[in-house]
Structures are given as structure tokens and as C-alpha cells.
């Protein structure tokens, strides 16, 4: 898998979000707690990557959610599902964190 250069979102750089592309597969790896700013950056990336070249998007959450993340994650997943659906690509969500996996299970992922 090829790791792309760190993305810049307008005037703010989020070093804790990594974008990886391997052909038609894109992985968005979130390496810090989910905050409103991080969620906004992920939504921005989803707009950029959900296109003709992408057939599958994988969101990877590597950090604990934190208090705000428990509220933000279901909304972010809703946006991700709609972006992937409109771009005709598959969405997968994964994590090694128990709190993230628990919330994914309760939201139906």
C-alpha cells in the first residue's frame, strides 16, 4: 500500500490523519481522538476521495473516542455512508479499540 503525502485541509494541517491509497482502495486513518475539527477533516477527505477511481474506502480509528467522539462518530459514519453511496464505493470501518468497536456495534456497523 502506498502512503500518500500528508493532506492539507485549507489552512490547517492535521498530522493525525493519514491517507493511504492502493489502486481503487483508500484508507483514512485517524490517529487521535475524534473532535469536531478531526471529523470535519475526515468529511473533507471523503469528498475528495469518493470518486471514479475509488471503489472502497476504509475508515480506521486508532485512538480512543473520548467524550466528544461518542457523539461525533455516528454522525460522521452517516456522512461517510452517504458520500460513499453517492460515489458508488464501498465503506468499511475498523478499529482495534474496544470503545470504538462497541459504538460501531451499537450503531449497526
The secondary-structure element order is: EEEEEHEHEH
The 3D shape can be described as globular
Q: Looking at the chains present, what oligomeric state does this protein adopt?
A: single chain
Give the distance, in angstroms, between the N- and C-terminal Cα atoms: 25 Å
Q: What amount of the residues lies in strands?
A: 25-35%
| Helix share, percent | 40-55%
Question: Which stretches of 5+ consecutive residues score pLDDT under 50?
Answer: 1-12
Question: Care to describe what's here?
Answer:
The protein has 109 residues and is of the alpha/beta class. Helices cover 40% and strands 28% of the residues. It is built from 3 helices and 7 strands; from the N terminus they run βββββαβαβα. The protein has helices spanning 36-49, 66-86, 98-106; strands at residues 2-3, 8-9, 12-13, 17-22, 25-30, 56-61, 90-95. The strands form 2 sheets. Strands 1-4-5-6-7 form a 5-stranded mixed β-sheet. The longest helix is centred in the C-terminal third of the chain and has 21 residues, at 66-86. Mean pLDDT is 85; it is low at 1-12.
Amino acid at each position: 500500500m502506498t502512503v500518500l503525502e500528508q493532506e492539507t485541509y485549507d489552512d490547517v494541517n492535521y498530522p493525525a490523519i493519514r491517507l493511504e491509497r492502493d489502486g481503487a482502495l483508500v484508507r483514512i486513518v485517524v490517529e487521535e481522538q475524534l473532535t469536531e475539527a478531526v471529523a470535519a477533516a475526515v468529511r473533507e477527505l471523503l469528498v475528495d476521495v469518493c470518486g471514479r477511481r475509488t471503489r472502497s474506502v476504509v475508515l480506521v480509528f486508532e485512538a480512543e473516542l473520548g467524550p466528544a467522539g461518542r457523539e461525533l462518530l455516528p454522525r460522521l459514519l452517516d456522512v461517510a455512508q452517504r458520500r460513499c453511496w453517492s460515489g458508488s464505493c464501498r465503506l468499511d470501518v475498523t478499529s482495534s479499540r474496544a470503545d470504538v468497536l462497541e459504538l460501531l456495534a451499537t450503531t449497526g456497523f
